[in-house]
Amino acid sequence: MAIAVGYVIALVGAVIAYQYSKGKSKKRKYQVWGFSLMLPISPALAFSIGLTYAVIVKNGWAALIMWYIFPVIFIIGLMMLLVGVFRREE
C-alpha cells in the first residue's frame, strides 16, 4: 500500500508540473520541472523504488537504496531549476 502511495504522489506531481508548464517558455518549463523534481517527485519516487526493490529481493535492508536514488534525482532537479533561473530569454 505504501509503495503505491509513493508512485501516486510522484505521478500527481508530474501531471501538475506538466499542466503548469504547458504553453510556457523554455525558461519557465525548466523552473517548473526543476522545482517539481526536487520537492514532490524525488522523495516519493525514491521511497517507492526503495520499498519495491526491498520487496523483490525480500530483504528490508535493501530499501536503503533510496538514500542513493533521492540525491541523484534531487540534483537533476536542482540543475534544471538553475538552468531555468539563469537562462536568458530568446
Question: TL;DR?
Answer:
The protein is built from three helices and no strands. The chain is mainly alpha-helical.
Task: Describe what this molecule looks like in 3D.
The structure is a single chain. Helices cover 81% and strands 0% of the residues. The protein is mostly helical and 90 residues long. The protein has one domain (2-86). It is elongated. It starts with a helix and ends with a helix. The model has no long low-confidence stretch (mean pLDDT 95).
Detail the topology: elements first, then pairings.
Blueprint: H1 2-21, H2 26-57, H3 66-86
Helix pairs in contact: 1-2, 2-3
Structural class: mainly alpha
Q: What is the general shape? A: elongated
Summed over residues and divided by their number, the pLDDT gives a mean of 95
**Considering DSSP H and I runs of 4 or more, what fraction of the residues is helical?**
over 70%
The ordered H/E elements are HHH
Give the strand tally.
0
Computed Rg: 15 Å
Entry keywords:
mainly alpha; elongated; about 90 residues
